[in-house]
Write a structure and sequence with these properties.
By secondary structure, this protein is an alpha/beta fold. It contains twelve helices and 16 strands. It has an eight-stranded parallel barrel, surrounded by six helices. A five-stranded antiparallel β-sheet has the order 12-11-15-14-13. A two-stranded antiparallel sheet has the order 1-2. Strand 14 and strand 15 form a beta hairpin. Helix 6 packs parallel to helix 7 and helix 11 packs parallel to helix 12. The longest helix is centred in the middle third of the chain and has 18 residues.
Length: 384
């Protein structure tokens, strides 16, 4: 596969001719929208006849050579899930919760169809456990209530084991965020005890880790996570290497490679690389400018949608070489906007990082939007 960056005067036909491929292939792989206008600076994935993997519609193909997980809510489009599953080795179903007394709370919609679909595509369905409260926010008081009470903790552990067996899950992913520093050791103990309880039955435990760059990093996101201890306790960990640019923050790359690299460089000093999965964002943000703290809110967008916004407003897409991320600005109704998103260049750079450090996998947050070019590029990098 090749990556081509659009220049002024390019058309789909001229690009296809230059690479000896078909216009239909360029359109399909990049999800271009009729009448197939292009944005200057847009990165296109170029595949060649007979070399791209089979699609979900025409047949299956070998799984990638690394563990590749994708997070999905229970309201995901069945079509999007069917398109994505062939590229995955694990499907993280988001999410299960729990009460302050350790009673397991099921997702709002039935997830059994997702589990069955995953198993049918040789993908391991994973139960994702989060301390989300009724408002959908991470609640660290829930964590404290359960982890600091032996009865509540074991109530939760045994209900998780029963759910794994009843629903035919393959493992559990623990996604606890904003853990209090006073609960740090209790959290490690919980992951350890959960793993020791379910492993004899053939289940695995993974833990999602906030993106730390040092052991003593301050902040509510970081102080409750002991990288070394959790790396010992879990079968694998996911580095949540995204959200530097986030909905309520200033405009910037969601996963700038220079910052992602710092996290990986620290992580491999505490955790064996063969246990580490790199987090990859499958989304971008559109910020109105100027940014005002506590007021400005970005709109979450898909990577395909981001390119269409650039085309609609005649904006040229730029590429930040330090962050290894695309971005652009446009005007709408007198308001300046700045958009950061992912493209095949940024995914290629993250793939290079996985290979450079010998990491064993990747976890995509999230797979609710179908992005064919991103998956094709990633799969191409990690074929057997």
């Amino acid at each position: 596969m090749d990556i081509y960056v659009v220049t002024p005067g390019d058309t789909i036909d001229s690009i296809a001719r230059a690479f000896g491929t078909s216009a239909d292939s360029v359109i399909y792989d990049n999800q271009l929208v009729y009448p197939y206008a292009l944005a200057v600076g847009q990165a296109l994935l170029i595949t060649y006849p007979g070399e791209a993997p089979l699609s979900a519609e025409t047949g299956s193909f070998p799984k990638p050579s690394i563990q590749t997980g994708g997070y999905a809510y229970t309201y995901i489009s069945p079509w999007v899930l069917a398109q994505t599953l062939p590229f995955l080795t694990e499907l993280f179903i988001f999410s299960y919760g729990f009460t302050p007394e350790g009673t397991l709370i099921l997702p709002p919609l039935d997830d059994r169809w997702m589990i069955q679909a995953a198993i049918g595509q040789n993908v391991r369905p994973i139960l994702t456990l989060t301390p989300l409260d009724s408002s959908g926010q991470f609640n660290n008081n829930l964590i404290t209530s359960v982890l600091q009470n032996e009865t509540y903790k074991w109530t939760l552990i045994y209900q998780l084991l029963d759910t794994l067996q009843t629903k035919n899950f393959a493992g559990i992913d623990i996604d606890f965020e904003y853990i209090k520093s006073s609960d740090r050791d209790a959290f490690t103990a919980f992951v350890t005890e959960l793993a020791e309880t379910i492993r004899p039955y053939g289940y695995t435990v993974s833990a999602a880790l906030a993106p730390k760059t040092s052991a003593d990093q301050k902040g509510l996101l970081y102080e409750g996570k002991d990288y070394a201890a959790l790396g010992d306790a879990a079968d694998s960990v996911l580095l949540m290497t995204y959200e530097w640019g986030y909905k309520h923050g200033p405009s910037m790359a969601v996963a700038p490679l220079n910052m992602v690299r710092r996290v990986v460089e620290y992580a491999v000093t505490e955790i064996p690389p063969e246990k580490i999965h790199l987090g990859i964002p499958n989304y971008g943000y559109d910020w109105p400018l100027p940014y005002e703290q506590g007021v400005t809110t970005a709109v979450t967008i898909g990577n395909v949608e981001a390119v269409q916004i650039a085309i609609q407003h005649g904006a040229a897409i730029q590429f930040d070489e330090t962050a290894q991320s695309p971005y652009f600005r446009y005007m709408q109704d007198g308001v300046l906007h700045e958009v950061w998103f992912e493209d095949v260049r940024s995914i290629s750079a993250k793939s290079d990082l996985i290979q450079e450090f010998g990491l064993s996998g990747a976890g995509w947050w999230q797979i609710m939007r179908w992005w064919r070019a991103g998956w094709l590029l990633f799969y191409d990098r990690f074929q057997y």
